[in-house]
Every structure is written in structure tokens, then in C-alpha cells.
Design brief:
This protein has a seven-stranded mixed beta sheet, with helices on both faces. It contains nine helices and seven strands. The radius of gyration is 18 Å and the shape is globular. The chain is of the alpha/beta class. The longest helix has 20 residues, at about 160-175.
Amino acid sequence: MDGKHWDDWQRSWDRQQEWYLPDREERFRVMLDTVEAHAGRGPRVLDLACGTGSISERLLARLPGAVSVGVDIDPVLLTIARGHFAAEPRLTLVAADLRDRDWPDRLPPGPYDAVLTATALHWLPADDLTRIYRDVAGLLRPGGVFLNADHTPEPGTPLLNTADEAFQRLRQQRERAQGVLDWARWWAAAAADPALAEQVAARALVHGSHEDPQSRPAGWHCARLVEAGFREAGVIWRSVGDSLVAAIR
């Protein structure tokens, strides 16, 4: 397939994700502001659970001196990433499962200046996630930064949460009527593409049956990060239901 085919899939993935996360680009902007503040304009970055490489694409466009290692296990998303970034020498893609204890051994040697992730770690059980936080601490240089943008609703604000959920449902209905693909329809379209059909079939074997996502408050993540060896952790951006947690090694 030519590059345009994969570029189209990359844009399609981004639009599908924006359907769920209307503030997605703002989260990425704050994330990259923080990387530049702590690591300058030529950081060495680990893009954790990178998917199609959305974070790395924005990182490399903003900071031409940056290099990135993207790690994921999803064969469909990695296929799109490899096609989309085929001519990009600053990005290395690695297939590894974060649920495996030896996943860091598959990476190019550290240390890294920053580890970035978005909308992925809520799928992991608490035990796996706390272990991964320890792994990440070991991959970062002293003073390096970890940034996790994810769904972190606060249990103490039920009225705000309910109003925001209702508002987002209405927005999604309008956008779906305009042709935006949700998760299920995006994956159906991927399965119908002969260039991805084999990877879609393999994906079921890789992931097995997903546990229900475990959205935890931002404070939970901050506490686990400090326990994992980070010097400090805190929220540097949030909407009603989502936040960006930063931690300094």
C-alpha cells in the first residue's frame, strides 16, 4: 500500500479518538509543553502504548531534534503506524505487551528524558499498572518526566460528572450524524480493508477478552507514582472527566 493509504488511516484514527476526547489536542499541547520545559528541544522519548503514533507525530513535528520509541502490542495500530511513519527515521516502533514483566527488555536501551502515554493505561488492572509505574521510573533519567493523559473522573463531583456526560452524549450524537466513526464502526471499517483484515483477526488473539476499563481518580495515580519512586506527581491539566498527570523522576 502507498503512504497515502496509511496516512488516511492515521487521520481516521485521530478523528475517531476525538469523538471520545474533544480536548485531545489540548492535552497533547500541554503534554509537549511539559516535555520541552523539562527536557529541552531534543528529548529522547518513550511513547508508551503508542497506538498509531499520535503522540510521536506531534512530538516530532514540534521538536525536530526529538527522537521517539513507540511501544504497543496491537497489530492493527502498529501496522498503520509503520506505514504512516515509513520515511521517519526519528521514530522506532517496538511490539511489546505491557502486561509482560519483561517488556522493558525489548526497548532500545535507556535512559529516556520523557515517557508519554494517553488514553491507554485505564485498561490495566491495578497490580499491572503499579508495576509499570516502577518500570517507567527505571527507564527515566533522574529529572525525567512521565506524563499520563487519561480518563480520571472524580467521585466527589457527581453533579459535574453527570452534566458533562450528558453534554458529551449530545455532542457525539451530532457528530455521528455527520459521519464520524465511533470505536465499533472504526474497527468494522478496518476489518473490511484487505490491507488490515489479517491484523484485525490477529488482534483478537493478542488482546483476548478485555477486562472492563478501570478509571481511577488522578490522585490515585499520583500516589502510586510516588510509591514507585518518583519525587513528585501532580495534575497539570484537567477537564471534568479527564486529566494529565505528570511525575518527575
